[in-house]
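Much of our argument rests on the idea that a fold can be written as discrete symbols. Part of our work consisted of pairing the sequence of a single chain with a tokenised description of its backbone. The amino acid sequence and the backbone structure tokens for this protein are reproduced below.
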Amino acid sequence: MGDVIVCEPFIKEHPNFRLFPLEEALSRADIVVVLVDHTCFGKLSAARLSDKVVIDTRGILS
């Protein structure tokens, strides 16, 4: 069983999830699911995500 690592840069805390800074979330994740089209997510390079399984529901990653 794995952990869910949540990154949402526009809120400081969430009542149900611990929030992680983007770089920490990426370094810990094996699977990355993009659910919102924030600019910081769209700027992620293919090289940065090359060792991850990526599910981009917004179509923002190139």
User: Anything to note?
Assistant: The mean pLDDT is 95. The longest strand covers residues 31-34. The first helix runs from residue 22 to 28. Strands lie at 31-34, 53-56.
